């Protein structure tokens, strides 16, 4: 099964295992996203026993492409379904404190796992048209540059039929991914991906 194979590629990868601050998405079956249930379970278990490890997942703020990445510790109590029935983190944690947000974090992200509708073989990613990931990535990459942080590795999860030989439509605001994981393995598109993935 493709979902199992894709997650297995990621879970066994050295670049994944070495990452300590990670943004991942909580998959939604109705959107036909690649399943991340095993990845999320692994991340949250590692977070419980690894000092300094942080897991963040997206929360859509409005219909103007604003999305935040908020820290969670489990999927049972920390997530609620939004108006599109996508599981998102609550604004407050179990003791009533605001959740830590990636944009206010004091340390850089190592890895960001993201979904998409279609991808090309040069790292182009086509989302669902809302621009949420593109705006978040633009803002985070500007923050990282301002703080002198290394950019996180941007890795998308994809079923093989979603990968196109022709270019996906992109514009100046779109951010290319570094690598793409499908059931057959990992495709790399950037020098950072070559360095961190191909050498591991």
Q: What's the arrangement of strands in the largest beta sheet?
A: 3-2-1-6-9-11-12
CATH superfamily of the domain at 2-50 and 106-165 and 175-198: NagB/RpiA/CoA transferase-like
List unreliable stretches of 5+ residues. none
Q: In what range is the share of β-strand residues?
A: 15-25%
Mean pLDDT: 93
Classify the secondary structure makeup into a structural class.
alpha/beta
Distance between the first and last residues' Cα: 25 Å
C-alpha geometry: globular
Helical run tally: 5
- Return the CATH class of the domain at 2-50 and 106-165 and 175-198: Alpha Beta
Give structural attributes:
12 strands, single chain, seven-stranded mixed β-sheet, 5-formyltetrahydrofolate cyclo-ligase, 22% strand, three-stranded mixed β-sheet, 200 residues, metal-binding, Rossmann fold, metal ion binding, EC 6.3.3.2, 26% helix, globular, alpha/beta, ATP binding, 5 helices
Question: Can you lay out the helices and strands and say which pair or pack?
Answer:
Elements (H helix, E strand, L loop, with lengths): L1 H10 L2 H4 L3 E3 L13 H13 L4 E7 L6 E5 L7 E3 L5 E3 L21 E4 L3 E3 L4 E2 L5 H16 L5 E5 L5 E2 L14 E4 L2 E4 L2 H8 L2
Parallel strand pairs: 1-2, 1-6, 6-9, 7-10, 9-11
Antiparallel strand pairs: 2-3, 4-5, 7-8, 11-12
């Amino acid at each position: 099964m493709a979902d199992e194979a894709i997650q297995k590629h990621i879970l066994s990868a050295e670049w994944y295992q070495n990452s300590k601050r990670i943004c991942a998405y909580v998959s939604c079956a109705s959107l036909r996203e690649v399943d991340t249930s095993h990845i999320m379970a692994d991340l949250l278990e590692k977070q419980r026993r690894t000092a300094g490890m942080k897991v963040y997942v997206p929360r859509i703020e409005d219909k103007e492409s604003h999305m935040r990445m908020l820290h969670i510790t489990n999927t049972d109590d920390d997530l609620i379904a939004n108006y599109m029935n996508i599981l998102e983190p609550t604004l407050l944690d179990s003791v009533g404190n605001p959740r830590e947000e990636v944009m206010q974090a004091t340390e850089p992200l190592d890895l960001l796992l993201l979904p998409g509708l279609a991808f090309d073989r040069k790292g182009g990613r086509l989302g669902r048209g809302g621009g949420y990931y593109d705006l978040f990535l633009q803002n985070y990459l500007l923050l990282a540059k301002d703080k002198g942080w290394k950019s996180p590795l941007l890795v998308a999860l994809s079923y093989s039929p979603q990968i196109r030989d022709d270019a996906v439509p992109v514009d100046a605001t779109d951010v290319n991914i570094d690598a793409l994981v499908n059931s057959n393995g990992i495709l790399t598109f950037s020098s950072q991906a070559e360095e961190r993935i191909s050498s591991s």
